[in-house]
Design goal:
The complex is a heterodimer. By secondary structure, chain A is an all-alpha fold. Helix content of chain A is 71%, strand content 1%. The relative contact order of chain A is 0.16. The C terminus of chain A is likely disordered. By secondary structure, chain B is an all-alpha fold. Chain B has a single domain, classed as ABC transporter involved in vitamin B12 uptake, BtuC, CATH 1.10.3470. In chain B, strand 1 and strand 2 form a beta hairpin. In chain B, helix 1 packs antiparallel against helix 8, helix 5 packs across helix 6 and helix 6 crosses helix 8. The relative contact order of chain B is 0.21. The chains are: A mainly alpha, B mainly alpha. At the A-B interface, helix 5, helix 6, helix 12 and helix 14 of A face helix 4, helix 9 and helix 11 of B.
């Protein structure tokens, strides 16, 4: 145990995590909100990365899974007084079902069809939400019934609780992704995404593998969305069920580094603070200015850094770790570059 | 109004509104079919053309339909700039890269429009905006009719250009086999540039002709492009004639859904249709043709 802890590869992230946990109670409401959104977009980024990064299938529809994870438990809470802890399961099942349907229809096709189908599904869900207003509240949205401090219903007197819940989820999902990254499933999905024909020639059922990846991605997205719904307590279909949110979800992984474990985390750690600060500083006078910046960053990263920023940061990080006590002093060894073709 | 007249009225309304969407879809299909590039920001150019038309109307009092004479060449040049900066270097990479990069561009253009023109809805109402005539009880709005006829005329002009001119035939040759065309001395890069310029000009034309009967605000493109994708999927990716027919069908389907079911049902049917077509006939109703 101590031998493991002595390696800077373990103690550096662990120290950062402990510092993050310990510092949270002293965050101002603005920074607590920012930290919660960071965790949320890190989780959603991980989830998107499974299919969008490893599976190399561009999903523009992840807001649909957020919508199902947020709306289904909330509507069940309003109708049957069901706690969102149980409701989350139904939200995840709904998301899995939609992912299974879309994946089943499109994973036999090549190229842009999957992206177009996911675009169609989020748009469809957006208009369905607006159309069936008796059920969903339509354009007004729907609120989570207020119950005061009621942990069994995921309602708390302080947002700090949501921070810790999402932190546990984020650590769990990161751990899952670490395992996934080295698992047979992970290798198969990567192979299916990189070169479909080659993957099939060595016996991988690429359609099946992508389908499982997409369903897993949908389930994780929906689970985090249920917690998010309790945190924001009012669901606005022009944010929660909207293509714009789909794009915000894919940005951390794309900019951070697609098909890497730490890409979505680094991406979210960069993008969320920039967005929040820009919104606070410029929001009133120059609404949308931060999104122009987002657009520029996306274009530049895709053009010049297709592997995302962890590709560069990772090298510096490895060199730093190698110099720390317990480091192996062989730069680059602690973060091996993965074979990408 | 008798039931039959009402059906015809809905049919005409649906058909007349489809012109702009067809032009956007033609541009999307042209870029896809020739350059093998997916441009999600296509309708953002329509949005800027709408603002351009509006500015020309406000500042110079220029008739929106006449402003096509300025809008088309200007946006063809913008298309060249778009090709050089956004398309050329990443053309051979995944469609996913194209989509993400043009999504980034769409973000920039939408929010630039928001900064420049604010979120206010802008409209152009000309002296003849409300004018309409009547055929057997079916009322036809002049502005919508003119817009539709211009769209159809541009479609046939495009088809004639592709079939009759040397450059047009070179474009078709590149769409069929890029390396073979290059071997026969076609300057492929120049053909790509011309194709993208035409496609962006078509998107701009769509914006301009829709301006007198619709409205513009920074997010309109987001909706237009979804409709255009529905048309492209239904007509077959890269199939221009398919796009024309699919555009007419989708326009009519949306109108009937809206009139007979109400609310957003028309749009819901259109987007459900995309998924159904991808399942039943992924190559589109009319197949994927090389132009």
């Amino acid at each position: 145990m101590t031998a493991v802890l002595a390696s800077p590869r373990i103690y550096v992230p662990l120290a950062a995590l402990i510092l993050f946990i310990a510092a949270a109670p002293w965050f101002s409401p603005f920074y607590l909100n920012m930290a919660i959104l960071f965790l949320l977009f890190a989780i959603w980024g991980h989830a998107w990365n499974i299919i969008g990064g490893y599976g190399n299938s561009l999903s523009l529809g992840h807001a649909a899974f957020v919508a199902l994870g947020a709306y289904v438990p909330t509507l069940m809470l309003r109708a049957f007084d069901l706690t969102p802890i149980v409701g989350a399961v139904f939200g995840m099942l709904a998301a899995i079902a939609v992912a299974a349907f879309v994946g089943w229809v499109t994973f036999r096709l090549k190229g842009a069809y999957f992206a177009i189908a996911t675009l169609a599904i989020i748009t469809l869900l957006h208009y369905l939400t607006l159309h069936f207003r008796g059920l969903t509240g339509g354009a007004q949205g729907v609120s989570v019934p207020f119950r005061g401090h009621d942990p069994l219903y995921l309602q708390f007197s302080s947002n700090l609780y949501y921070f810790y819940i999402l932190l546990v989820m984020a650590v769990l999902v990161t751990w899952i992704m670490q395992r996934f990254d080295r698992s047979q499933f992970g290798y198969h999905l990567r192979a299916a995404g990189q070169d479909e024909a080659a993957a099939q020639s060595i016996g991988i059922d690429t359609r099946q593998v992508k389908l499982w990846g997409f369903m897993m991605s949908a389930a994780i997205t929906a689970a985090a969305a249920t917690v998010y719904a309790q945190f924001i307590y009012h669901l606005d279909p022009f944010y929660v069920v909207h293509i714009q949110l789909s794009i915000l979800i894919l940005l951390p992984a794309v900019i951070g580094g697609p098909a890497t474990v730490w890409g979505p985390v680094v991406g979210a750690a960069l993008l969320v603070p920039v967005e929040q600060l820009a919104q606070r500083e410029l929001g009133g006078t120059y609404a949308g200015a931060q999104l122009i910046l987002y657009g520029l960053v996306v274009i530049l990263v895709l053009r010049y850094l297709p592997e995302g920023i962890v590709g560069i940061l990772g090298r510096y990080y490895s060199r730093l770790l190698a110099r720390l006590p317990g480091g192996d002093d062989i730069g680059g060894k602690s973060k091996p570059r993965r074979q990408s073709d | 109004m008798s039931e039959l007249v009402f059906v015809f009225q809905t049919l005409v309304d649906g058909l007349l509104l489809s012109g702009g969407y067809i032009l956007i879809a033609l541009g999307l299909g042209l870029i896809f079919g020739v350059v093998n590039y997916v441009n999600v920001a296509q309708a953002e150019f329509s949005m800027f053309a709408m603002y351009g038309t509006w500015v020309l109307w406000i500042a110079l009092g220029l008739d929106p339909f006449l402003s096509l004479a300025i809008i088309l060449p200007v946006f063809a040049m913008i298309g060249v700039a778009f090709y050089v900066s956004m398309v050329r270097a990443v053309r051979t990479r995944d469609h996913g890269v194209h989509i993400l990069m043009t999504l980034g561009l769409a973000f920039i253009l939408q929010n630039a429009a928001l900064l420049i023109f604010s979120a206010d809805v802008r409209t152009i109402r000309t002296a003849y905006s409300a004018a309409s005539f009547n055929i057997g009880g079916v009322s036809i709005n002049i502005v919508k009719l003119v817009a539709f006829l211009i769209a159809i005329a541009l479609f046939f002009a495009l088809i004639a250009f592709l079939n009759k001119t040397r450059t047009g035939r070179a474009i078709r040759a590149v769409a069929q086999d890029e390396s073979l065309a290059a071997a026969f001395g076609v300057n492929v890069d120049r053909i790509f540039m011309i194709t993208v310029a035409i496609a962006i000009a078509l998107a701009a034309a769509a914006g301009t002709i829709m301006m007198p009967h619709l409205f513009v605000q920074p997010m309109v493109g987001q909706f237009f492009v979804l409709f255009a994708f529905a048309i492209v999927v239904m007509g077959g990716m890269g199939n221009l004639k398919g796009a024309l027919v699919a555009g007419l069908i989708i326009g009519v389907v949306e109108a009937f859904g809206q009139v007979y079911i109400g609310g957003l049902a028309g749009r819901i049917i259109v987007f459900a249709l995309i998924l159904i077509i991808l399942y039943l006939r992924p190559s589109g109703l009319f197949g994927r043709s090389a132009l």
